[in-house]
Amino acid sequence: MVSAALPQPPTVSNRSNRPHVTAILAMSADGKIADAKQSAARFPSAIDQSHLERQVASTDATLFGASTLRAYQTTLSVSTPDLIEQRRSQGKPDQPVQIVCSASGKLDSRWRFFQQPIPRRLITTLEGLQYWKDHLEPPSAQIQNKSQSVEQKFFEHVLITERPFDWPKVMQNLYAGTSALSAITSRRPIKQLLVMGGGELVASLLTDGLVDELYLTVCPLLIGGKTAPTPVGGLGFTLPRTPQLKLESAKTEGDEVFLHYTVSAASPVPTV
């Protein structure tokens, strides 16, 4: 049975100016993280959900793409009392920061994500921030509290970058605890970051050499479909210069296999 204790803190990244980045994904036996329609992937078991919650509880922040949020319209928070107590004993707040990245800003403020009692941040572009502010639902959401800006009502920080995202710079900002809108140091710098998908985001971070660990759950089903997303999307890497993994552990629970890898000598990798 998988332990309920928090995972041990990871070894500090060989890069001192960015968070230690861990990616975690569940996939079918044929390597798909969702179907071709990119529906919410609800095939992992309760054991895998518990595994995921422990990883969420062990981190300072989670990061996920807009497509992942659109599929679920919510995110996994820490709800197990023992895990919350362990966070408190480590001097951490009950919940990690939940960070969504969306260049377009096409997010729906009616999603349950925005009602969850969690700290939220947004990584977007100037155009994306403007789109988000212009399309809030209901429109009255913009004027309910005049002491807050529109972005502060839903996000504690908004990080502005250019398209395509400059991920090394974004990681430096997260690590330093600065807001790209004001350059004022925040109270919650990010030292450990958990990436929860999707495959396009993971590919971008791997391309820039920004992933240190990978947790991969293999689930007992087949999805198929040449357009169904995989754990690593993007254009793909060119052999032999591909990200290399070292297997740290492999455990079987029921019909699922839980794999833990470290990424060997994380460095930028050219794509096709």
Automatic annotation (TrEMBL):
Lineage of the species this protein comes from: Bacteria, Bacillati, Cyanobacteriota, Cyanophyceae, Leptolyngbyales
Domain Bacterial bifunctional deaminase-reductase C-terminal: 19-257
Entry keyword set: NADP, Oxidoreductase
Transmembrane intervals: none
SUPFAM superfamilies: Dihydrofolate reductase-like
Protein name: Riboflavin deaminase
InterPro entries assigned to the protein according to its UniProt record, in alphabetical order: DHFR-like_dom_sf, RibDG_C, Riboflavin_Biosynth_HTPR
GO molecular function, one term: 5-amino-6-(5-phosphoribosylamino)uracil reductase activity
A biological-process GO annotation: riboflavin biosynthetic process
Pathway assignment: Cofactor biosynthesis; riboflavin biosynthesis
One Pfam family here: RibD_C
